[in-house]
Automatic annotation (TrEMBL):
Residues 189-396 form the DNA/pantothenate metabolism flavoprotein C-terminal domain. This is Coenzyme A biosynthesis bifunctional protein CoaBC. The gene is coaBC. Keywords: Decarboxylase, Flavoprotein, FMN, Ligase, Lyase, Magnesium, Metal-binding, Multifunctional enzyme. HAMAP family: CoaBC.
Length: 399
């Protein structure tokens, strides 16, 4: 299994240890080599043999057990791991790692690994909220360790509150993301990237508005890609159903005006600005503070032009690389080039919104990137995350 991606799972002693079995099994289904290390107390909750059977690997608990092959086990596992997950993570293991204590197989291996370490804490609410535990967590976060927040609910001890191990699917997703981002070059380190995503609302009265079909997916993937490449990312987002990406500063807005304000507040010190939002071009002429009552005749609403944010950015551009999107249904190339020029952009990413399996709401996209030097890069249909990666490759000139 040496060529496979490897996830090392540290299971520490809590009632949620049995849930780690589902994590092992989900990762094995993705053809990932899973190595389990259990603490002594974890073995009181679940037998090592169960983890052994599911992972199809020997389970390590004892540092001083006779090794099966000549290798110093905590070092070889530490090197082999692409990602290290501790689930459930007790207050004890968090405290040990935060304070440099390495006195068993799990804590020594965590100490020796260079892989990303993710903790999924699970414990009694009062323990979780204890200031010492929280300060250990903050310290570890500051050192680059990641945490998957525990959920709230009824705990094994009967208490209600925060401390339940996060949902297994959320944990698995996070591990898969970490595996994926591991090989991404950190070529945006030190760069500030500002992204807009999602739709905006044109409010009509306190309960009504018009908007568009943007789901925000493309912009959120761009934000994740920039983050994984090492950038300092700010995402200005219209209303979406998407989870805010971790490690990204998200500013939620609703209207064109609010988006403009948030973007301009962050514009001056940004290096790259990518506007993937579907911004409303019109706002209602006379907003009604009261809910509009129905009448017998037709309802006629008048809309007036609102800010073209991207155009304003183009006018104020200094050293920023400015990237726009063009959602088109006809004359893609002509329209995209016109927008590139009119809005003083460096790049424009054009997509054909008439295609049903790409564009709005879809996970895939098929785009053409136009550059200000007249180049045209036609990309095949690919996942939106991959499109995000190609956009940065183009900006950084690696194709
Ligand atoms: N954009 C913007 N402000 C607007 C409208 C669009 O900042 N009021 C930005 C979008 O975020 C996108 C680009 O401009 O990056 C192109 O958006 P699109 O709607 O395709 O183009 P428009 O310029 O609005 O032209 P049209 O609607 O006539 O196609």
């Amino acid at each position: 299994m040496e060529n496979k991606r490897c996830v090392c799972i540290g299971v520490s002693g809590g009632i949620a240890a049995y849930k780690a079995l589902d994590i092992v099994s989900a990762l094995r289904k993705k053809d990932i080599d899973v190595r389990v290390i259990m603490t002594e107390s974890a073995t009181k909750f679940v037998a090592p043999l169960t983890f052994q059977s599911l992972s199809q690997n020997m389970v390590t608990t004892d540092m001083f057990a006779e090794p099966k092959a000549f290798e110093i086990q905590h070092i070889s596992l530490a090197k082999r791991a692409d990602v290290f997950l501790v689930a459930p993570a007790t207050a004890n293991i968090i405290g040990k790692v935060a304070n440099g204590i390495a006195d068993d197989m799990l804590s020594t291996t965590i100490m020796a690994t260079k892989a990303k370490v993710i903790f999924a804490p699970a414990m009694n609410t009062n323990m979780y909220e204890n200031k010492i535990v929280q300060s250990n967590i903050e310290k570890l976060k500051g050192l680059g360790y990641e945490f998957i927040e525990p959920a709230s609910g009824r705990l094994a001890c009967g208490d209600e509150g925060r401390g339940k191990l996060a949902d297994v699917n959320t944990i698995v997703e996070k591990v898969l993301d970490a595996l994926e981002s591991k090989d991404i070059p950190k070529d945006l380190l030190g760069k500030k990237v500002l992204i807009s995503a999602g739709p905006t609302y044109s409010n009509i009265d306190p309960v009504r508005f018009i908007t568009n079909k943007s789901t925000g997916k493309m912009g959120y993937y761009i934000a994740e890609e920039a983050r994984d490449r090492g950038a300092d990312v700010t995402l200005v987002s219209g209303p979406t159903n998407l989870k805010p990406p971790s490690g990204v500063k998200v500013i939620n807005i609703t209207t064109n005006e609010e988006m403009k304000e948030a973007i301009f507040e962050n514009y001056d010190d940004s290096d790259i600005v990518i506007k993937s939002a579907a911004v409303a071009d019109y706002k209602i002429k006379n907003y009604s503070n009261d809910k509009i009552k129905k009448g017998d005749g037709d309802l006629v609403l008048t809309f007036v032009r609102d800010n073209d944010i991207l155009k304003l950015l183009g006018e104020k551009k200094t050293n920023q690389i400015l990237v726009g999107f063009a959602a088109e249904s006809t004359n893609i190339s002509e329209n995209a080039r016109r927008k590139l020029e009119n809005k003083n952009l460096d790049y424009i990413v054009a997509n054909d919104i008439t295609s049903s399996d790409t564009g709005f709401g879809s996970d895939d996209n098929k785009v053409v990137i136009f550059t200000k030097d007249g180049e045209e890069i036609n990309l095949d249909k690919m996942s939106k995350r991959k499109v995000a990666s190609k956009i940065f490759d183009t900006i950084l000139r690696k194709r």
